[in-house]
Amino acid sequence: MDIRRLEAFAKVYELKSFSKAAKDIFLSQPTISAHISALEKELGVRLFDRLGRSILPTQAAEILYKYARSAFDSLAGAKAEIGLLQKRVSGELVVGGSTIPAHYMLPGIFAGFLEKYPDVTTHLAIGDTGRIIDRVAEGDLAVGMVGAREDSKDLEFVPVLDDDLVVIAPPGIVSGVDAKITAKDLFDLPWVTREPGSGTGKALEKALARIGFEIRNLRSVVCVESTMAVLACVRAGIGLSVTSRLVARSFLESGEVVEVHAEGLAMRRGFYLTYHKRRYFFPVVRYFIDFVCQEGRKGL
Residue 22 to residues 19, 39, 62: CA-CA distances in angstroms? Predict the structure, then answer.
């Protein structure tokens, strides 16, 4: 079976369009049509139903696409393994990162990794911790760096780095710098909270539960979906929030925000590299996992 015909078929299947497939792989539309017709003749089945301008894959196409993708992945794996014989790590690396790793950790990791392996290209997908974990579990991402772990028989969570979480507030919303208050006082103040899937939000929820409080009782006035939005809202005077000490350090040193010490509330959480235990990884992914673990041991 001609690999060029399979590539044309896979692109039509993915884009549901002959013209879009032709444009995407730089072939003419008649050439794409000829490749599909040749495959249909070879297999003795129709692969696509033409419904006016729309096309729908047949059951035969569904089966062929599954095996074609497997063949493409195997060929890419062979190419990568052969590259290793030449001591050359290459290929595309797609990494997922929750908010803090994506903005404050992975850029530096990528810089070091790409300096060591210049033939690699990288792509960073950003989402909250829950979404990145889901995408790794679904096979959409090979590897992710997140701020919480989950119990899963399919996923591995490798500890990379530990970090303190701190309660921060606008100057003046609580009395004095490094103010000390009771945990109960936290529930009388306005809060800037993170979305439910956030690793930071999960860590705060667990810390409050340990001292007998529920996160749902905090007086949330704004809910945001990024660490930078948290810092911006707190600096604007909206309310308290929780974030990584790593992220907040420069803002605390400049006095733009102050740290609030709540009695009995201690928060420390880890960052983890997560990947699917049963997936085959191309060398570039294996080398990246090893590189991140080594950097983690050095404290990034």
Answer: 5, 16, 20
